[in-house]
Amino acid sequence: MEQTLVILKPSCVERGLIGDVISRIQNKGITIIGMKMMQLNEQILREHYSHLVEKPFFPGLCASMMATPVVCMVLKGIDVVEVFRTMTGSTNGRKAAPGTLRGDFCMSGQANIVHASDSVESAKVEIARFFRPDEIFDYTPDNLAFLYADDEL
Ligand code: TYD
Q1: Ligand 1: which atom is nearest the Cα of residue 49?
Q2: Is any ligand 1 atom within 6 A of the Cβ of residue 91?
């Protein structure tokens, strides 16, 4: 099964939305196999957002991501990278569709509460960036037969 990296950003932590986001993940039937609180620094953000380092908003983005600790998670499920990107919604919360996390919980293109890996390849790199192997608990939930049909597994 696929894995993806999620970061509950300071805008999620500070606004008391950690539980709401985790509820959405669990209600969907996605398995959380890693979870920890971390204080990010500029070094890890320069790697994580390397495609944005030259953008004028990068200093503000860095500051916003270091404003409080974040909660990092590794999620597991069939097609979970795409499934969770769809659940996250488009980058700007004001334009994100209702029913998505950003569409329902934020009004900003920067304070947009969650990060979600955008491909299977970047998920692998991002999980290795934020988690040591011994911090990931790749267990199989007991209710798997009720989450998926046999021919999907
Ligand atoms: P990006 O990787 O383009 O989007 P996404 O998070 O939807 O994968 O951008 C990463 C983060 O950078 C985004 O979540 C918030 C921030 N950002 C800004 O602050 N201003 C901007 O104009 C953009 C495009 C992104």
Answers
A1: 10
A2: yes
Return the CATH number of the domain spanning residue range 2-37+69-152. Answer: 3.30.70.141
Q: Which residue owns the Cα nearest ligand 1 atom 2?
A: 49
Q: From the CB of residue 30, how many other CB atoms can be counted at a distance below 10 Å? A: 21
CB 44 within 8 A of CB 4: no
Catalytic positions, written as ranges: 115
Q: Kindly state the tokens that stand for 82.
A: 């795409």
Protein residue closest via CA to atom 10 of ligand 1: 49
Q: pLDDT tens, 36-91?
A: 999 999 999 999 999 999 999 999 999 999 999 999 999 999 999 999 999 999 99
> Using one digit for the tens of pLDDT, what is the confidence trace for 68-81?
999 999 999 999 99
Task: Determine contact, residues 15/56, Cβ cutoff 8 Å.
Answer: no
Residue ranges of the domains in the chain?
2-37+69-152
β-bridge pairing 31-38 and 114-116: unpaired
CA distance 101 to 98: 8
pLDDT of residue 137: 98
Give burial (CB, 10 Å; 0-12/13-18/19+) of 40: buried
